[in-house]
Design a protein that fits this description.
This protein is an alpha+beta fold. Among the domains are: about 30-135, no CATH class; about 260-340, no CATH class. The protein has 10 helices and 24 strands. The protein has helices at about 1-25, 130-135, 140-145, 150-165, 195-205, 230-235, 265-270, 310-315, 350-360, 365-370; strands spanning about 35-40, 45-50, 55, 65, 70-75, 80-85, 85-90, 90-95, 105, 110, 115-120, 125-130, 180, 205-210, 215, 220, 260, 280-285, 295-300, 305, 325-330, 335-340, 350, 375-380. The strands form 6 sheets. A 7-stranded mixed beta sheet has the order 4-3-8-11-12-1-13. Strands 7-6-5-2-9-10 form a 6-stranded antiparallel beta sheet, with no helix packed on it. α4 (about 150-165) runs antiparallel to α9 (about 350-360). The longest helix has 22 residues, at about 1-25. The two termini are about 40 Å apart. The model is unreliable at about 10-25 (pLDDT under 50). The structure holds zinc ion. Zinc ion (ZN) binds near residues 224, 247, 250 and 351.
């Protein structure tokens, strides 16, 4: 009897173990907070809080309490930091509100979590140390419209969470994980939060994109123009779930089709560091599987330059030449570029995610469409 009971118990235990393995439950994310630098090279930072707050001087270990509603100006003094005109601290301080319902205001904008101020060689850097879920609330409205269908907003929340977790420590040598600009993900703090995007973050808490049981890489862009790109054609790496897929869902994007006029002089100015002068012809030599320009040749007075469409776009400026999915019309004056989409084209097409959500697809279907073979799992912090 006792033996049977033990066997049953063992069976239940094994089932739980297998379930645990199959669902990925129990997998943990490496951290629940991250540090995002949102101001750099500052000579003055304004600080205010509606509750009293504490300044922790990480060098001396001293904590000082400040009263609410006073507007403090923080400035660098040599290698140290000055708070107001009397309180001097070392080169790194951490500021925390003493009331969890009141938030620190830096230059008039509210931030959740705490604020680290660093003196980096004579100028100040402001870093927000923040829970990853709260961070995402200040990221989502900068990436897509919170008014989009909820499943596409959730897909973006999961893609952005996966990106953030993948990039912890990216700028570790500088004292933070991520920047708040396009070199990481654009983050703008509490001021941009929206109830719908906050809901998408809350309802996908801890959910990340997984490939074969491991955290997947995460890339996305505004509009693919009809077909997403193989990552190998953009960054040279070979990742099986970024091979490019057909996407008929993003035609509502205002950048689904565009044209751009660039004079030879404009192009020469952008490419001057490559020795380009007096352009004679621009020829498109080949295209990638997605239709983007793979190789192009610029003949000019000083010789010839062969570049990829992606490199050409990055040199001209990614916000000027919206994508590498273009053709060039023959014209007498400026070159007219006819193009489709906006962005590098790798991973999830944001306008395509919106289009799929409008057709009734859920966030799992959307993400696995753009990243075949991946799945969404909830990992705990
Ligand atoms: Zn698309």
């Amino acid at each position: 009897m006792k033996n049977r009971f033990l066997k049953a118990l063992l069976a239940v235990f094994l089932c739980l173990l297998l379930f645990d393995f199959a669902s990925g439950a129990g997998r943990r994310l490496p951290a629940d907070t991250l540090r995002v630098a949102f101001l750099t090279d500052q000579t003055r930072i304004h600080l205010k809080c509606s509750s009293s707050f504490t300044v922790y001087d990480t060098g001396s270990g001293r904590r000082t309490r400040f009263e609410p509603e006073v507007n403090f100006v923080i400035t660098p003094v040599g290698e140290d930091i000055m708070i107001g005109d009397r309180k001097k601290a070392g080169r790194k301080i951490q500021i925390s509100s003493r009331d969890s319902r009141e938030f620190l205001r830096i230059n008039g904008r509210r931030y959740r979590g705490s604020i680290i101020i660093l003196n980096s060689e004579g100028t100040l850097t402001a870093v927000n140390e923040i829970n990853i879920e709260d961070y995402l609330k200040g990221v989502l409205p900068m990436e897509i419209s919170p008014r989009w269908p909820m499943e596409s907003v959730k897909a973006q929340a999961i893609a952005a969470r996966t990106y953030a977790v993948n990039n912890l420590g990216k700028y570790g040598s500088r004292g933070y994980d991520l920047t708040a600009d396009i070199y990481s993900q654009v983050y703008a703090g509490m001021e941009v939060e929206d109830p719908r995007s906050n809901r998408a973050v809350n309802e996908t808490r801890g959910k990340v994109i997984v490939y074969k049981g491991n955290l997947a890489r995460s890339y996305f862009h505004s509009c693919c123009g009809g077909h997403t790109e193989d990552i190998q054609k953009v960054w040279g790496s070979d990742i099986p779930y970024f091979k490019g897929v057909y996407c008929p869902f993003c035609s509502d994007s205002p950048r689904a089709r565009w044209y751009l006029d660039l004079s030879p002089q404009d192009i020469e100015a952008h490419l001057s560091r490559h020795g380009i002068r007096e352009i004679e012809t621009i020829k498109l030599l080949s295209r990638t599987g997605s239709g983007r320009v793979d190789a192009m040749k610029i003949s000019h007075a000083g010789g010839e330059l062969e570049v990829t469409g992606h490199a050409f776009r990055m040199t001209v400026g990614p916000n000027i030449l919206k994508s590498a999915l273009f053709t060039i019309g023959i014209s007498e004056g400026p070159y007219r570029f006819y193009g489709r989409g906006w962005g590098h084209g790798v991973g999830m097409c944001q306008w395509g995610a919106r289009g799929q959500a409008l057709e009734g697809k859920n966030f799992r279907e959307i993400l696995s469409y753009y990243m075949p073979g991946t799945e969404v799992r909830r990992w705990s912090y």
